[in-house]
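Action item from last meeting closed. Structure (607 res):
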């Protein structure tokens, strides 16, 4: 009897527990249904992307409205841990297609110390949308999307655990969003590290004229990658591109102008992604613009703004700089159309700066210096002054660079196009001459160009642009000696704190006197104290200045001694130039080793 009573009691207790559990589960389910009804985007609000630092992000299946963390892309195009200064990509799936170019998707990012960035997303074909984010600091970042036009893209939430900057290239370690230095005389990486601008010119890139997956030369699997690899090994830090040319895709040939007609070809932009990503992986910053001079007469300001809105969304978080377009102010046959184009491009510059979330240093590529009307110099959005010394018989005078450098407000100045090697038979000697003169005058960067590469001459029978000189096929043009010698130029300046150098245009006197193009140009680091001689000097002797007796003056009041060293700009080799003594604020300079151009480095005995 007692046993039956105990069995009945256990059964009753079991029923009570089960009933309670069922009631609790029903309560939870009611709560879940209520939450789902109130929060239609509940799938991603529970932080689907959270993970421990150091683990690689995993890509989730993208159902309607779901977010997938694609992660930063490395040189081998595989996901990595999100890192400071690298691009992390989020993928979203829209609920409908509609007219995607009219849809606005914005993502608000909040950093570990309350930093805020709003990044616009971009359409990438089908129902896919992407947001690219370059974290400016490490730590935990939270994000939330806004898109009133599509519920699948709205209110996506998550977090990113960002590791500190690291990597092989200066872009990885210091960031590739270029900024203007505090003294407004040179450019810096994102973290303030000085950035030495040494560029090449590939106006027809990205395009099938410079393919990334093939080449027309046996033994070269990728024309573009070969060029990038070569210039990276030679110390180039930027490549100027203008998107001149189309790219063939499965749905036909496409280019950036398709957006003017509201046409979108995802395959085109996805291939452009690969061009930019590969350059970044090799430590090179693409400096991009769309089109040249009169080809921008036809599109309206609204069309150009639409193009740049998309470009900013897609590439604004990449290590790229913007030159807007080539020769914006070139004079054509219709002065009215020229004036309208200039006005339109200047308005576009303000639009780009206002909508760039990272506020990178912005510039604009101009027409030849001696005919440019300098419309852009007074623009408040204009951060970096590009000048074009052009391809005339006489290179720019030092005074032309000084006018740019002395303009107020102060801006960094870059020589962006002057005497391309091979144009009008210009040689490596001509290239070195204009490059060193520009830098000694105070420019913070120089862009090289090769005839046969600025437009990539396809083969021996391609005669395009032969009015500028005998075309050379690209597979020979990229091996020109002047292009290779630019690595020595960079090594020369980076042997000291080049960003602190001050031009001393009249510090060297020569007897007999030398003409403008044979002037000996000096720069020096600031003196430690007033009245002291400068601790370092860098002096460029152009070819043909070897017969003149040269003296460096204005060296302070003390009797200082300097150790001299000759630098050969053709080979990069160095050799001693002996000890030199200052007397009465002047110092005789040693005889040049030969009639060719040379650089003399002087180091104070106080060092």
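Sequence:
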């Amino acid at each position: 009897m007692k046993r039956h009573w105990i069995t009945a009691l256990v059964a009753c207790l079991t029923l009570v527990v089960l009933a309670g559990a069922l009631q609790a589960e029903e309560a939870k389910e009611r709560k879940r249904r209520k939450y789902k009804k109130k929060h239609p985007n509940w799938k991603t609000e529970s932080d689907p992307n959270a993970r421990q630092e150091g683990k690689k992000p995993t890509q989730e299946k993208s159902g309607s409205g779901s977010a997938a963390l694609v992660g930063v892309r490395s040189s081998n195009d595989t996901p990595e841990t999100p890192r400071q200064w690298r691009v992390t990509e989020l993928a979203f799936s829209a609920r409908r297609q509609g007219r995607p170019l009219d849809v606005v998707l914005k993502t608000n990012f909040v950093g570990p110390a309350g930093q805020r960035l709003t990044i616009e997303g971009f359409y990438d074909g089908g129902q896919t949308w992407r947001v690219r984010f370059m974290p400016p600091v490490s730590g935990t970042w939270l994000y939330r999307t806004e898109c009133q036009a599509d519920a699948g893209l709205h209110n996506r939430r998550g977090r990113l655990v960002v590791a500190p900057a690291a990597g092989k290239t200066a872009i990885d370690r210091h960031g590739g969003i270029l900024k203007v230095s505090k003294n407004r005389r040179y450019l810096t990486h994102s973290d303030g590290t000085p950035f030495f601008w040494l560029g090449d010119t590939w106006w027809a890139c990205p395009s099938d004229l410079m393919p990334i997956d093939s080449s027309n030369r046996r033994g070269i699997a990728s024309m573009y990658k070969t060029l990038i690899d070569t210039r990276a090994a030679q110390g180039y830090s930027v490549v100027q591109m203008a998107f001149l040319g189309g790219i063939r895709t499965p749905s036909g040939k496409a280019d950036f102008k398709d957006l003017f007609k509201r046409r979108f070809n995802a395959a085109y932009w996805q291939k452009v992604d690969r061009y930019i990503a590969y350059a970044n992986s090799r430590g090179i910053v693409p400096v991009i613009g769309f089109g040249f001079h009169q080809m921008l007469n036809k599109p309206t300001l609204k069309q150009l703004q639409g193009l740049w809105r998309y470009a900013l969304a897609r590439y604004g978080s990449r290590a790229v700089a913007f030159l807007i377009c080539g020769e914006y102010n070139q004079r054509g046959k219709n002065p009215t159309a020229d004036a309208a184009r200039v006005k339109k491009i200047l308005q576009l510059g303000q639009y780009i700066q206002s909508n760039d979330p990272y506020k990178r240093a912005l510039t604009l590529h101009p027409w030849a210096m001696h005919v440019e009307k300098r419309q852009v110099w007074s623009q408040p959005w204009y951060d970096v002054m590009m000048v074009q010394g052009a391809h005339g018989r006489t290179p720019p005078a030092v005074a032309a660079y000084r006018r740019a450098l002395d303009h107020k407000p102060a801006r960094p100045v870059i020589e962006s196009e002057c005497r391309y090697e091979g144009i009008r038979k210009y040689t490596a000697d001509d290239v070195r001459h204009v490059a060193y003169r520009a830098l000694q005058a105070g420019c913070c960067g120089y862009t090289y160009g090769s005839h046969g590469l600025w437009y990539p001459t396809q083969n021996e029978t391609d005669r395009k642009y032969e009015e500028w000189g005998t075309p050379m096929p690209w597979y020979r043009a990229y091996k020109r000696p002047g292009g290779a010698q630019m690595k020595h130029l960079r090594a020369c300046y980076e042997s000291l704190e080049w960003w602190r150098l001050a031009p001393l245009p009249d510090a060297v006197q020569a007897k007999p006197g030398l003409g403008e193009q044979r002037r000996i140009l000096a720069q020096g680091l600031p003196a430690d104290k007033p009245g002291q001689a400068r601790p370092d000097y860098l002096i460029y002797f152009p070819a043909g200045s070897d017969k003149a007796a040269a003296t460096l003056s204005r060296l302070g009041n003390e009797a200082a001694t300097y150790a001299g060293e000759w630098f050969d700009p053709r080979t990069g080799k160095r050799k001693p130039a002996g000890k030199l003594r200052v007397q009465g604020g002047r110092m005789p300079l040693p005889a040049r080793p030969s009639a060719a151009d040379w650089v003399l480095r002087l180091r104070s005995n106080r060092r």
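Note appended to the action item: The first helix runs from residue 2 to 38.
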